[in-house]
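General statements about sequence and structure are easier to judge against a single worked case. For one protein, we set the task of working out the structure tokens from the amino acid sequence alone. This step matters because it turns folding into a mapping between discrete strings. The amino acid sequence and the backbone structure tokens for this protein are reproduced below.
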Amino acid sequence: MLSLLKKILINAEPVETFSIQGRKPAQEDDFFVSEKKNGRQLLFVADGVGGHGHGDFASGKTVEVFKEAFEEMPNEINVKEFLYSTILKAAHQVLDKCLEDPAYKNCGTTISGFFISGNIYHTFNVGDSRVYLFSDGVLSRETHDHSVVQELLDSGQITEEEAFVHPKRNMMTSAIGQNLHIMKVDVSEPRELLPGDVLMAFSDGVHDALTDNMIFNIVKEYKNAEGLAERLVNSAFEAGGKDNITAVIFRYLG
């Protein structure tokens, strides 16, 4: 089990990341935590898919595109437009590689994270990685999976309990790297953070192995303590997780 741990303290806002290769033959997860710029910060996970189709390229390229876009971001921006346009730029570059080199055919990546400006945040998502919020003792999903199982849930054909063990639970309906006319991109309206809130971005290696109730119990215990990202990732691995597993944690101190 290979691991990568970074703990960062940026302008007094604690950020933790923890990522492991786990039981997969290669590490295709990646993540990004920006420095603060004009009171803004960008954090996300990217879960590469495609195996020998170079999912690691897709997730790494997405991180590279966002890093460059954030560094060049002007003082005045429309956050939703910035997130949409940067996701589309990453998608174009990944898709172009897929089309020009047969070895990269079918590679892709999810992206799920949040853009913070002061006490306001936007979430963004493509695929089945997730953002969660822990606020005032309540855990809530802040993003909506693009997956076959989510569509079955939305239509009432299965329950959450059935979704957790469904044989198609890893089949996505959207990813960076697929044809752009069918790629789904979700960017939320602005939402407010309260002092003590915890925002979390996970690759599906976390929530494939841990139910929301299990995540809640861990976050409740570690809400104000270091080690939450590591605890969540290791708990997912110990629960039998077969995927790469990555967590990015942000605590808002107010």
DSSP finds seven helices and 13 strands in the chain. The CA atoms of residues 90 and 186 lie 15 Å apart.
